Amino acid sequence: MTTLAPVPLSKLKVTQGALRERTDGRLDVESARLRAFVPGTDLAARAELRFLPRAPTGEQRALQSGEQRQQVGLKLRARDGCNVLYVMWRFAPKAGVVVNYKRNPEQHRSSDCGNRGYVTVTPFRRGAVSAPSWGEEHTLRTELRGVTLRVWTDDALTWEGDLPPEALALEGPLGLRSDNVRLTFQLAVPPP
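RE: above sequence
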């Protein structure tokens, strides 16, 4: 199995929010919303996000649906803001891991599709997952083999399920997303 390689700031394309690189190579998020991806990682089967949640952001921005959430996660097959597969670890209002995809084939910008097209994937195996603890390092890891997606939180397999054809049909790079959480993180992906 290929070892994952850390992604420096220079290799990330940030589409919302801002990142600051630390001297140790980890990245800081201070903004209420972060969206970023790694060009050249289309259809990569594995990713890992090591993160230290420091605190909720001062400004708490609602999602386009109007829901108020604190979460961090991986974007898999992130073609654009309207066509993407998410693996999210939610802090609040309800802790847990959620896998969903957003599919709007004729639309490409979030302003085009809004919050339309989301489908939550039901796993065949789910473990209990607490909210990440503030001030402690955590790991969110994914692996896609065939149609089966596996998700580990802090090295425990906590979500396993088969993705539907609509989710598997998505094509695009790996990335990450955060909402309303100040983080220090390191994203690792398969080397080019």
